[in-house]
Each structure stands twice: as structure tokens, then as C-alpha cells.
Amino acid sequence: MSDSFDPSSFEPMRRGRQFEEFAVGQVYHHHWGRTLTAADSTIFSTSTCCWLPMYLNVPFAQAHGHPDAVIHPMLVLCTVVGMSVEDLSEGGGAFLGLEDCTFHRPVYPGDTIVARSTVVDTRPSSSRPGGIVSWHTEAHDHHGELVVDFVRTNLVASRAAS
Fold first, then answer.
1. pLDDT tens, residue by residue, 79-108
2. Angle formed by the axes of helices 73-88 and 38-47, nearest 10°
3. What are the residues whose beta carbons fall under 8 Å from the beta carbon of 116, sequence distance 6 or more?
4. H or E element at residue 120
5. CA distance linking residue 81 with residue 8, whole number of Å
6. Which H or E run contains 121?
7. Residue 108: Cβ-neighbour burial (10 angstroms; 0-12, 13-18, 19+)
8. pLDDT in tens, 108-134
9. Non-local CB neighbours of 24 within 8 Å, separated by 6+ positions
């Protein structure tokens, strides 16, 4: 290793959008999507101590009209929120909530989820530097079927606060 390495010479890289960059009506198509697997669902279900057979037992799920075990819906939600972070909230700021969440159809192993978010509200914060932004996010499977939608709200730093 070189003796000339000086970590203080690296400038921090600013990531994410700032409050002023969001306007009502803007649409963000989030990255290429994510294929969910049976292993993903099993790990998620067991690590959250959710032993419901619908998510872990293929014959049980089939006996209840499903072609396969169902992917845990909270895994689907977490995946979709995660896909949106780079475009919406990577710059930091408090997560203020998620509301009006509707799961429209089950997701099965092998389904690929894609998502897009639309800015539905922006307002300056009265108590913190920056503003409050809300997005309506919709996720679809690779067949184009709506899987889940919700509204998420975050505090987003302003340019002046950066």
C-alpha cells in the first residue's frame, strides 16, 4: 500500500435529489426491476418469524387456489420502496410515513417487479430545512398487472441546507 494515501483528499459525493428538484406531476421510472424468488420469500418470512404456510408451503398455497407459494407481501412492499430510494430519497431526510397502501394481486416466485412514482405533493417544512415531498408509487409485475400501490412521504433537504 502506498504511503501517499490521504483519505482527506476525497470529496464526499452528494447523492440524491433536493427539495427544489421535485414538482407535482413529475414521474420517476425506477431502475430495471427485481425478480423475486422463493428463496427471497423464505428468507424474509423466516427472518421475520412469519410462519404462515401460504408463504412457505407450496401444497398449502395450491390447495387455496394459488399456483405456487405466495411471495410475502411485505417483502414486495419493501422491495418496491427500496427500488424507489435512488430516485426519491437517497439524499437523506426523515421517512414520514406510508399510507393508502393496497396490495392488488399476489406475487409468485419468478415474478419481476417494476415501479414508478409520481410526485403528488411538495411543501416547505415549517420546522426543518427543506421540505416535505409525497409520491404515489405503483408497482407492476412483468405481465403489466398492478401489484401494489401506496403514497410515501419524506422530509427532503433543500439546496440551502446542503
1. 999 999 999 988 878 999 999 999 999 999
2. 100
3. 27, 28, 29, 30, 137, 138
4. strand 112-124
5. 34
6. strand 112-124
7. middle
8. 999 999 999 999 999 998 888 889 999
9. 119, 120, 121, 122
pLDDT for the residue numbered 125: 86
Contact 75, 147 (CB under 8 A): no
- Assigned C-alpha cell, 31: 431502475
The identity of residue 158, as a single letter, is S
Q: How far apart are the first and last CA of the chain?
A: 34
Spatial distance between the Cα atoms of 132 and 126, rounded to a whole number of angstroms: 10
Q: Rounded mean pLDDT of 14-41?
A: 92
AA letter at 5? F
Asked if residues 117 and 88 have their Cβ atoms less than 8 Å apart, the reply is: yes
* Amino acid letter for position 16: G
- Helix, strand, coil percentages (3-state) for the chain, rounded to 5, are 25, 30, 45
Predicted confidence (pLDDT) at residue 14 exceeds the cutoff of 80: no
Q: How many residues does the chain have?
A: 162
The pTM for the full model equals 0.87
* Alpha-carbon radius of gyration of the chain: 19
Burial class (CB in 10 A: 0-12, 13-18, 19+), 31: exposed
